[in-house]
Amino acid sequence: KRPIIMDCDPGHDDALAILLALASDKLDVKLITTSAGNQTPDKTLNNTLKLLSFIGVTDIEVAGGAPKPLVRDLIIAEDIHGETGIDGADLGEAKFAASNRSALDAMRDVLLNTKESVTIVATGPLTNVAILLNAYPEVKEKIECISLMGGACFGGNITPAAEFNIYVDPEAADIVFRSGVPIIMSGLDVTLKAQLFQEDIDRIRHIGNKTGQVMAGLLDFFNLSNTPHFLAEPGHVEGLHMHDPCAVAYLLDPTLFRGLDCYVEIETSGRLTTGCTVVDYNRVTGKPANAKVLFEIDRARFADMLHAAIKQFV
Ligand code: BDR
Ligand code: CA
């Protein structure tokens, strides 16, 4: 089993990314750390504990991360993920407590104490990962790669140029993309194609387990809040964008995806473009690639993968 650390900000699609990882016999989730992003840090931490409790997994360490981005104020996505950060279903109460160590300490210990190298899956702003790389650069050689959801080669979703996770903490993203650790970037180029349609959501609802019902409730809420207005034209059926599960799905089956090795830099001080992942798509800089940027996904197989994962739970 491939050891992984998940750093996330649940978040509807983060929740699904967690389920996808936990359902797989290919991945060993050693630790979950939470970032501030979709909601405030207390809420993303509590949502993670609630989700794990709901599916009866109470033996994974969950550690809370930095309260805010490295240098900026926190921006949250309450309009998309609701007041709780995971509106749309009742997960019940958390049945276990968060770790008494910080995300930073827990990440470092897992990296240094695991024999094999560990993959980090990051599906929120990159604050915690950047703090780790800065504080303990020696852990870099224990990181197999960072599979992250963030950025875009073409176009943003929080500004015309920036994707939410990178925009919230561009300084952190800059540290991560300069770190030398191999990066798999599931940006909007691919995640806007990773869609679930109404029939996929209904198929999840009717699996016959309570996880399927609750996830369908979450997806219904996300579906209403998430569809970009410009796509809401008559006759156009736009599915629900499953951003974060892409970062896990790539690890489970890279043949679902097509990507390009590219040199990527983060804009931290643009007049219009702060938080943009500047992807050297046309290879004009001559600089060596630091990320595999994903562009295409086999949507149908991806939807089947999510369905099969949710089926594994109670
Ligand atoms: C990203 O932003 C969040 O709202 C989602 O959870 C995802 O990680 C998409 O831009
Ligand atoms: Ca997220």
From TrEMBL:
Keywords of this entry: Glycosidase, Hydrolase
GO molecular function, a single term: purine nucleosidase activity
Example GO biological process: purine nucleoside catabolic process
InterPro entries in UniProt: Inosine/uridine_hydrolase_dom (IPR001910), IUNH (IPR023186), Ribo_hydro-like (IPR036452)
Signal peptide region: none
Cellular component annotations (GO), alphabetically ordered: cytosol
Residues forming coiled coils: none
Pfam family, one: IU_nuc_hydro
The keyword Lyase appears for this protein: no
Domain Inosine/uridine-preferring nucleoside hydrolase: 4-303
PANTHER family reported in the protein's UniProt record: INOSINE-URIDINE PREFERRING NUCLEOSIDE HYDROLASE, URIDINE NUCLEOSIDASE
Official protein name in the record: Pyrimidine-specific ribonucleoside hydrolase RihA
Species, as recorded: Brevibacillus parabrevis
Biological classification of the source: Bacteria, Bacillati, Bacillota, Bacilli, Bacillales
